[in-house]
Write a structure and sequence with these properties.
By secondary structure, this protein is an alpha/beta fold. About 40% of the residues lie in helices and about 25% in strands.
């Protein structure tokens, strides 16, 4: 049996920043990420968790090819990638896409949804206009929106709908890797489960590889296959979801689990189902 394919891998990744304390202060090196290693198989989800300042967002920016690593090796589909020394090709950019925490902030308020979705194809491919529109419309429907939404502006949608639009835009270039940076933390609890279910369905359909950044441990438990815990830029624990949750080895992981309020995703799903059934049961429904 062939071994599972590793889609993205980091080997001893470091990211340093140089800062100065005052006008005549001495230069100080900040080690934002230190010696981080990981590997994610095709179709699987790696969750990166940690408190603010732990380095998880910095590592996400390296994985997303926004920032280069100071040292170490990032491999995408087995090939080393270093944006500090090699040009960023359209093909490479299409391979990794990101969905940000705030869907409204990541969407251009002056663009209609159809333009938001067709823009990645316009900038990165030679796809004809009619084909771009057809593909954008199909993706809009794929994420649970409707044809009439195509010509509306982002401010006309709810937070959950805007996040669906952001997910659709990220998928327009058929990426193999999707980085999800706190994608449901800005949403109402009743909407979170719907978006998480959508992400799972899309992962199954397109065989997507996810890197999921989150502080909500119940969401991590629901979506992740493997968990990487960061503290002060270092990976302090890394293992399968079941192993990390059932028997965390590092004191910081245990402290994080104890201190972080979590949302019961199963309870959310049950509440949404009950609400849906209640609406259906109303006189005149349907």
């Amino acid at each position: 049996m062939a071994s599972p394919e590793i889609v993205i891998e980091g080997r001893n990744i470091n990211r340093d920043y140089v800062s100065r304390a005052g006008l005549f202060g001495m230069a100080r090196v900040v080690h934002a990420v230190r010696d981080a290693s990981f590997a994610v198989q095709r179709g699987k989800t790696l969750a990166i968790v940690g408190e603010s300042g732990s380095g998880k967002s910095t590592l996400a920016r390296i994985i997303t090819l926004i920032d280069p690593a100071t040292s170490g090796t990032l491999l995408i589909e087995g090939k080393p990638v270093d944006i500090a020394t090699q040009p960023m090709t359209k093909a490479l950019r299409a391979t990794v896409q990101i969905v940000f925490q705030n869907p409204y902030g990541s969407l251009n308020p002056r663009q209609k949804v159809g333009d938001v979705l067709t823009e990645p194809l316009l900038l990165n491919t030679e796809t004809p206009a009619a084909v771009r529109r057809d593909r954008a419309m199909a993706m809009l429907l794929k994420v649970g929106l409707k044809e009439e939404h195509f010509n509306r502006y982002p401010h006309m949608f709810s937070g959950g709908q805007r996040q669906r639009i952001a997910i659709a835009r990220a998928l327009m270039l058929n990426p193999r890797i999707l980085v999800l940076d706190e994608p449901v933390s800005a949403l109402d609890l009743s909407v979170q489960a719907q978006v998480l279910n959508l992400l799972r369905d899309l992962q199954d359909e397109f065989n997507l590889t996810y890197v999921f950044i989150s502080h909500d441990l119940s969401v991590v438990r629901y979506l992740a296959d493997d968990v990487l815990v960061m503290l002060n830029g270092e990976v302090v624990e890394h293992g399968s979801r079941d192993t990390v949750f059932s028997a965390p080895q590092h004191a910081y992981t245990r402290k994080l689990f104890a201190a972080t309020p979590v949302t019961d995703v199963a309870a959310i799903r049950a509440r949404v189902a009950r609400r849906t059934e209640a609406l259906k049961a109303r006189p005149g429904a349907g």
